[in-house]
Write a structure and sequence with these properties.
Layout lengths: L10 H14 L3 H14 L1 H10 L1 H8 L3 H7 L1 H4 L12 E4 L6 H6 L8 E5 L16 H14 L6 E7 L5 H5 L14 H18 L4 E4 L4 H11 L5 E3 H21 L8 E4 L3 H18 L3 H5 L2 E5 L2 E2 L2 H5 L24 H8 L3 E4 L9 H10 L4 E4 L11 H7 L5 E4 L6 E2 L22 E2 L2 E2 L6 H11 L6 H13 L3 H4 L11 H19 L10 H8 L8
Parallel strand pairs: 1-3, 2-3, 2-4, 4-5, 6-7, 6-9, 9-10, 10-11, 11-14
Antiparallel strand pairs: 7-8, 12-13
Helix pairs in contact: 1-3, 2-3, 2-5, 3-4, 3-8, 8-19, 12-13, 12-20, 16-17, 19-22, 20-22, 22-23
Bound molecules: NADPH dihydro-nicotinamide-adenine-dinucleotide phosphate, pyruvic acid and magnesium ion (MG).
Length: 541
């Protein structure tokens, strides 16, 4: 005998048992812990549960619950004594000089996809140090579930260089280095050694996704490795792609072309500047104007106010990534508050990536809705507790007329009849909301990074380009159908994510062949080939 129970329970049945146990748990964190246990003991069962119930289970393994799990990561940590696939790999400052040997401790040898964080900016929750491991684990779970990347080929990494989070430093259970963050040369050396060791061990086509680094490192690291290694920064580039997709798709509701929008961002960090740069690139690609010209219709607000030429002239040293957006603003125009900026700049789209909740106030949303028939209101900060406003607020304050998207999921909103204004839509809009139900789309990079990764891995691409992000955005936008738009969503349902990922992957792989970065011979039928490489949790003893 096998020593296993005698009845051979099919995976589907096991998975429905997991789901019913999950529903019995009293908190989301309990659900997270329960699922982590299953991931450790029965990978196929874990993925079957996630793949078949993505809308219900994703908010547990990913945002918002993963944020809470990171904050409690040291308390709930029960991983085995040696690194395992489901618990990831910690590369510490003390490993400088021997990072390759640390990679050798990982059970999988055929690694194709890595998500790495240094834990400094975990969602909108700030520095979580080594507890940030929840993020690479969660992101890679989505690679496997949403794009069929083989779980045997993924590697979650935390680069532990210390933390400035005092609560962690004081916590006796904290699993990370108990010191302040390394900011000097050793930091750069450690990242460099990791990138080189990955290439050496797993090859030039092993994909590295940089995730949730603080912005003083994120932009630098991306610039340093983008042209020489197979990598991208998900917060800068993946986010940009998904948001651009939502804006393109929103034309189906608003009738407004991408090039005719005026954008105002709350937040001028990785997500803000990443999105702004890709929008400008897309407008330039569509209209033939220069990227700098396109940037003139984009304004950013940071923690000190509107990013502008006046701030540079006053001697303020603005971060490098903000400089392309230091536009001249009429000096007597009020810009002290977000509401002032909305009045002065008259944006058609308001995009929140500040991690500061409740900043899209009733006045701000009402002003957007006074100015435009269907303003875009994207509250993209994660987790839910950091969202600039809720779906319900955005819809109610705009009389149901705004196009809303959020970083973390919000439930559908049913507007009371008297709260729906009849003046929605513009004469160009091919589609207008007709019902009082809104299903807000999730403007989260999870819609694109799995598909991009699948395309890169399947073609053996050795680089990830900004064009890949543009292509992924356009592909995703096409997958948003009128059945989605009629509920107010600018994204397809998450239940179709594997199909969406396959399409994104095919487009990205095609681009790798065009750009000459692919290393796998081009198959005759690219899409069916990529589909044939996708992992399906099938179980079996
Ligand atoms: N939906 C999605 O897919 C994604 C969502 N995000 C979310 O976006 C948020 C920001 O992430 P990221 O850009 O990487 O973080 P960064 O730290 O790089 O940037 C944060 C930005 O917000 C600004 N900011 C801080 N406080 C205020 C304030 N009171 N008013 C206006 N602006 C303020 C900061 O200003 P300053 O520059 O002056 O410090 C900075 O420009 C997070 O919550 C994250 O979860 C991120 C990636 C993907
Ligand atoms: C979604 C994501 O990557 C973030 O909030 O950081
Ligand atoms: Mg992130």
């Amino acid at each position: 005998g096998t020593g296993l129970p005698s009845s051979d329970i099919p995976l589907k049945l096991q998975s429905s048992r997991v789901l019913s146990n999950l529903r019995d748990k009293s908190s989301d964190l309990e659900k997270y812990i329960y699922l982590r246990g299953i991931a450790e003991s029965n990978e196929d069962l874990y993925f079957a549960t996630l793949v078949n119930n993505v809308e219900e289970v994703m908010p547990i393994v990913y945002t918002p619950t993963v944020g809470q799990a990171c904050q409690k990561f040291s308390q709930i940590y029960t991983a085995p004594l040696s690194p395992s696939r489901s618990s990831g790999l910690f590369v510490n400052l003390a490993d400088l000089g021997s990072v390759a040997a640390v990679l050798d401790t990982y059970p999988s040898k055929d690694v194709k996809c890595i998500v790495v964080t240094d834990g400094e900016r975990i969602l909108g929750l700030g520095d979580q140090g080594a507890n940030g491991m929840g993020i690479p684990i969660g992101k890679l779970a989505l690679y496997c579930a949403c794009a069929g990347i083989d779980p045997k080929t993924v590697l979650p990494i935390v680069v532990d260089v210390g933390t400035n989070n005092e609560d962690n430093l004081k916590d006796e259970h904290y699993i990370g280095l108990r010191r302040k963050r390394e900011r000097g040369e050793k930091y750069d050396q450690l990242i460099d050694e990791l990138v080189e060791a990955v290439k050496e061990k797993y090859g030039e086509s092993c994909l590295i996704q940089f995730e949730d680094f603080g912005n003083s490192n994120a932009f630098r690291i991306l610039e340093k490795y983008q042209e020489t290694s197979c990598c991208f920064n998900d917060d800068i580039q993946g986010t940009a792609s998904v948001v651009l997709a939502g804006i393109i798709a929103s034309k189906g509701i608003t009738g407004v072309d991408l090039k005719d929008h005026r954008f105002l961002f709350l937040g001028a960090g990785e997500a803000g500047v990443g999105i702004a740069n890709l929008i400008a690139y897309a407008i330039s690609d569509e209209t033939g104007c220069s990227v700098d010209e396109a940037r003139k219709q984009i304004h950013l607000v940071d923690s000190k106010g509107l990013v502008s030429e006046a701030r540079v002239k006053s001697g303020e040293k603005l971060a490098h990534h903000k400089l392309p957006y230091t536009h001249p603003i009429c000096t007597d125009a009020p810009t002290s508050t977000l509401l002032d900026c909305v009045n002065t700049l008259n944006p058609t789209a308001l995009i929140g990536v500040s991690a500061i909740p409740n900043t899209f106030t009733q006045e701000v949303v009402e002003q957007m809705a006074n100015n435009h028939a269907n303003p875009l209101i994207f509250a993209l900060s994660n987790p839910t507790s950091k969202a600039e406003c809720t779906a319900e607020q955005a819809y109610n304050w705009s009389g149901g007329r705004c196009v809303f998207a959020s970083g973390s999921p919000f439930a559908k909103v049913e507007l009371s009849k008297e709260n729906i204004q009849t003046t929605w839509g513009t004469k160009n809009a091919p589609f207008r909301h007709r019902s009082n139900v809104r299903i807000p789309g999730q403007g989260n990079n999870a819609y694109v990074f799995p598909g991009i990764g699948l395309g890169v891995i399947a073609s053996g691409a050795t680089r990830v380009s900004d064009k890949d992000m543009l292509i992924a955005a356009r592909t995703l936008a096409k997958e948003c159908k009128s059945s989605d738009l009629c509920n107010g969503s600018v994204y397809p349902p998450l239940s179709s994510i594997r199909d969406v990922s396959l399409k994104i992957a095919t487009a990205v792989a095609e681009n790798a062949y065009e750009e000459g970065t692919a290393t796998v011979d081009r198959p005759k039928n690219l899409q069916s080939y990529i589909q044939s490489t996708m992992y399906h949790p099938t179980g079996g003893k």
